[in-house]
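#onboarding

Welcome to the new folks! Below is a worked example of what a typical request in this channel looks like: someone posts a single protein sequence, and someone else replies with the predicted structure as tokens. Don't worry about understanding the tokens yet, we'll cover that in week two.

Example request:
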Amino acid sequence: MKPVGPAGRRLMLLATLLCASAPANAATLKFRPQGAEMLRLLQAAVATLNTKDLPVTLDTASGPILTLGSTSAPFNPDVAARVVVVGSDRRIEFNPQGPLPLADALRAELTRELGLTEWTSAAARTRLSGADLNGDGKIDLTDLALLMNNYGKTDTTVGDLNQDRKVDDADLRLFSSQYRP
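Example response:
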């Protein structure tokens, strides 16, 4: 039998990993809801994304501010929400008399904010798991090509799924746990 070189070993590892199934990491959403109603609605919305495969939690200590109403300018009645930057704070303001129920407006705006294709656990798993490297809403061979292009490199963000400042076998294992042909 002919010995296998480093490239061959990587390909065999890749084939093995793509067939393996391991649990994905967790995702934490960072938003600062203002008021009890915004907090309740945000918690309910995040709960619909949470699954055993990708636990989604909420961190209310940082991130964009979510507020009901505005102190800066009146809303256009046809607008459900808007994004306003005040200093270093990013605010997502929701129109209390807008065209959508507040829960729907919140999910629609967070869908845009997080880059999801829709507000579902499947879309969240794809986008928030980290393996959708090109941000197209699916984990496919294009994402694998991006990871492999940076394989062995340090101080790169594309392909560094575990955020240890290098793209290596650990990132390949994370990718394989999320890839579904």
